[in-house]
Design brief:
The chain has 247 residues and is of the alpha+beta class. It is built from five helices and seven strands.
């Protein structure tokens, strides 16, 4: 009997797959960024300046265009990193409130969740979690998007629960996102982290691989189980201390 350690081979395959993912993502999202940002800036100049003395409901336009401009700029930074290095940028870790990061992601999806019952449970223990706020917000955004798509396909009363805490052994920060969608069969729970594999009708197969890569770059882990409503529960654990890419 011969046993071979193929860890290096697997690592090389994953790096190659991610380089391909990075190139494809950069190509797909780079072109629309400039016109989106230019139109948002044009709307702000045209309408907000002309109604300086008549505020009424114009705060919606103000907040909406500002959000568009900020998110496009974050995408532009991400695309530049992809194009230059063919990989996700390394996280810049700071001790920040994980619950506030979750709140930012939820606000981005507020318009899509009119019929979704959303519950949150945030603990003070997660208020000083070392993480890259932009990247973890991207993780949460991907998970929320997956949950919304799964619940829309499942056709039941949509329910989304998000919580932050510390693991019972006190060793990790814990982020949980649970939904009432159709769930992911056990046989596919490892495969959904592979680039281009998807269980959704209109999925690209890139969301969860990006989630896994970002979490691993933070020194953390991610796993999928069943939620209490029969849908999907995604559990992310992040280190108590900054361990990713030490200087």
């Amino acid at each position: 009997m011969t046993l071979d350690d193929i860890s290096d081979l697997i690592t090389a395959q994953r790096i190659s797959a991610w380089a391909d993912v990075a190139r494809r993502i950069a190509h797909e999202i780079k072109n629309p960024l400039t016109p989106i940002q230019l139109w948002a800036q044009r709307m702000r100049r045209k309408y907000l300046q002309s109604v300086a003395n008549e505020r009424r409901d114009w705060h919606v336009l103000d907040e909406g265009t500002e959000t568009i401009i900020n998110q496009v700029e974050e995408l532009r930074i991400l695309v530049n990193e992809f194009s230059t290095f063919s990989r996700l940028p390394r996280p810049h870790l700071n001790e920040e409130d994980l619950s506030a990061t979750v709140g930012d992601a939820l606000r981005l999806h507020a318009a899509e969740m009119g019929k979704v019952t959303v519950t949150t449970h945030f603990t003070a223990a997660a208020s000083r979690c070392p993480h890259d706020r932009s990247q973890i917000k991207q993780v949460i955004t991907n998970l929320i998007s997956n949950s919304l798509a799964a619940m829309a396909e499942h056709g039941t009363d949509p329910f989304l629960a998000i919580s932050t805490d510390v693991t019972p052994d006190g060793g990790w920060f814990l982020l949980q996102v649970a939904d009432s969608g159709g769930g992911i069969p056990p046989a596919n729970r490892d495969r959904v982290f592979e680039p281009y594999f998807t269980t959704k009708k209109k999925g690209t197969g890139l969301g969860l691989p990006i989630v896994k890569k970002i979490v691993e770059d933070h020194g953390g882990t991610v796993r999928i189980t069943d939620s209490q409503w029969g849908g999907t529960l995604v559990e992310i654990q992040l280190p108590l201390q900054s361990t990713a890419f030490p200087e």
